[in-house]
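chain below, 671 aa
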Amino acid sequence: MADLEKLTMDEAAQAMLKKAAAEGIETIWDRAEKMKPCPIGEEGACCRLCAQGPCRVPKPKKAKEGEVQKKQAVGLCGATPETIVARNFARMIAAGTSAHNDHSRGVALLFKEVAHGRTQGYAIKDVTKLRTVARDWDVAITVGEGDDVKPRPKEAIAQELADKVLLAFGQQSGELPYVARAPKKRQEIWRKEGIVPRGCDIEVVELMHRTHMGVDQDYKNLMKQGARCALSDGWGGSMISTDLQDIMFGCPVPTASEINLGVLKEDHVNIIIHGHEPLLPEMITVAVQEPEMIQYAQSKGAKGIQLAGMCCSANEILMRHGVPVAGNYLHQELAIITGALDALVVDVQCIFQSLANVAKCYHTKLITTDPRARIEGESVYIPYDDHHALDVARKVVREAIDNFPNRRAPVMIPAESHPTIVGFSYETIRYLLGGSIRGSYYTLNDNVIGGRIRGVAGVVGCNNCRTTQDSSHMTVIKELLKNDVIVLSTGCAAMAAGKYGLLTPESAVKYCGPGLAEICETVGIPPVLHMGACVDNSRILMAATACVKAGGLGTDISDLPAVGCAPEWMSEKAIAIGQYFVSSGVYVVFGVTFPSTGSDILTDYLGQGMDEIYGGRWDFEADPEEMAKKLIARIDQARKKLGIDKARERVLYDMAMRRELEEAARAAEEV
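prediction:
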């Protein structure tokens, strides 16, 4: 118990861990203490791709003076360490990409049904974004000719768009349409290297084939396909799902809410949505507000219904509806341990199998909703059906309400919760910087050039029980803010920022350098901009592209004083995300551990080798303070290359000067 602060810096989590220990409940932290990671597997140097192994190829210890250096081990088939590590790394990219692209396919299938009016409860809410996205897919948004031109019905646009989007998943040749969104210079690099993704599925299948025993045995060639596969996620599946979700559920705008376990209410029916697909959660958000449901809850002795979220399903309904968040990845068992949770509703990704056992120790119903993600020992299985989504949501809510009288353990809800301002989509940031008429990222660029903002950092990713929960996120973020680096965040990292008060405009004065604090105060934004779920990292790609197109900061993403990191990553999705950012020209640092350290040759290639090809590179740094220093150093390096490494006196631009800048930006985009 004395070491709780080493497990998590979150006081709410510490309180629940004490309660778990007192009640004899095992959590992920207990299992982590009992099970130490395999050091060879941790480095990516264990191959189990055929039945002759597993083959473990640890690095030989360096010979002492006068001794003969031992020869590096290879696999039974002769596979070198760099081949083995590259295969494992590539398979992580493939798995992470498949998770995002499969999520995206589900969204696209729902979108088609919505377009044809065959669903219950869903609608096309953002017609403006529908028309914007349609242009990228060469879908006409008007009908008629000459003086008879008029807007095309939204249903017709959506139906054609749905068909074209769904074709992209099985596309076998050509280029994914969203590749054209990237800066032209970046597109040229991808074409030169032969890594432009052809479709969403083909790149995953080919990469899995290449990593099969006895196929691709050149680590550079393996990582080339790894880059192509990752791009089919970032500039394919993830971007598709973000756009279609915005069209159906509404493009996020700044929204107030709160976060941490303190959002639960003892006298309410408490329901937590956990997972990564917002399709059913959208309808549950509707169902819990229906008067009939509230009255039903009251008939069971509750004052009302408290809906909360966890992980990325939480981020989706948080930024669109202000639904509070009960915590990030490592909170999922702890929410049950409060004794106040009546239903934990899960879909896919990042869900502990242990939830079933923990739920049995309390009264909580674990409700699974997706046929791809059943859990042995689940309380109830209620499959999602988009044609009857609202009815399914009502059934889920009724299960929770019926369970309210069954509470048996002492209820203990931590007091901790913090206010948040979320919902900073790429479009919202553009609007905040320039309004509805002159919306542009030039204002951001202007302040970067002038030195008020040093640079931009994406801090994303998971929690990891092998390090103190949230500690690395907060150390890195605070150091960046202190040095006038504005932070864009998604996923569990964004939730961590919220738990410690960094998602409010007021925090800028406390944590930011003078330049960034001034900007946040002037615009009225938090210093950490919550941009959504981990699938929404594509919003960061679009923001970076918008900075390039606004002019003044180079002609490619790799020119920007912009960096990315995942201080507490743990999933294969994180590797896929990191690779598509590296391939897009971004310097990316991961913490905790890194699955290439079993081969110095491959690690060097992921770093310096990729930097020479893509202008972006991988790096690993377990110490969060050192990670922040590396990120700032890379930003300063970019500023020096751009010739803006010295602060400049602020210039007030008149209309003529602004026109010149806009013309220069257009010229840069054409180049």
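The chain has three domains: 81-143+151-249, 255-406, 423-657. The mean pLDDT is 94.
thats it, cya
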